[in-house]
Amino acid sequence: MTSSDIVIISPLLCKNITIQTTQKIKSSNLYNFFTTSIQSNDTILELDDKIFYYYIIESNIYEIYILNTKYEYINLQSSIFKYFYKNNTNTTDLFITNDYFVVFKNGELYFFKENIDYEIEDIKSFIKYKYKININNTYLINKEQIKLYEEEFLKNNKQTIEFIKPKQSKFIWLYIVYLIILIVLFIIYNSKFENNKVIQENKIVYEINNNILFDIIKLCNIYKLQLEKLEYKNRYIIKIKSNNKKNINKFLSYYEDKIDIKNIYKKGKSYILEFDIAN
Question: Are residues 192 and 261 in the same domain?
Fold first, then answer.
């Protein structure tokens, strides 16, 4: 990867959720904590959504950002102000643009927020009382300065945003292994009783269905859908459930034309979807 591979994106393209905690969350629990927090804010993650965050230690606050993009190497325009510093610094500084404001601590980006025509003193008061941070220096940044810092950033910087990735559950991997075994057994069975042409046709069908199954399992993991049933009786019979009806609808928006829906109903607090994948 080179600097030319990096795409600089405006901070305003990020959805922002602020979460107050009592202590720092263990890194192994961060993804589940973030996705739960995001869903509790009536936000549904898309397939291309990427999550990153900043932890403000003074106030035990997590600033969570959601960015919908297919780019692989990304950084934010708010990161470019690191090139304001010529030497190491131990200060906490505030950079204010027309669109957003950024807090840097010890020369590194600490967090950023949208600027909705706030007065300078209002921003500093907000940071002091919300985040328990005292600002040492405040800088107003115009478009010309942003352009200069951005050029410097692209020349020298190779760092990109580190996104939080989900931990695959053991349950999901067990189903993947189960599916692979089913496919292998099917191919072996057909090799004994079908001619080569039929075998090839069935392999193609099962490769297609296998891809769909893998995608379905992936979406179940993303949208916190519980896989209740997976059977094979000349076709795959699947049942999933969720306490959030929006998650079921989001799943259907991707696969309604690829599955045969048998039933959608509510049982207790859960919404249940039953469907088949035909051969």
Answer: yes
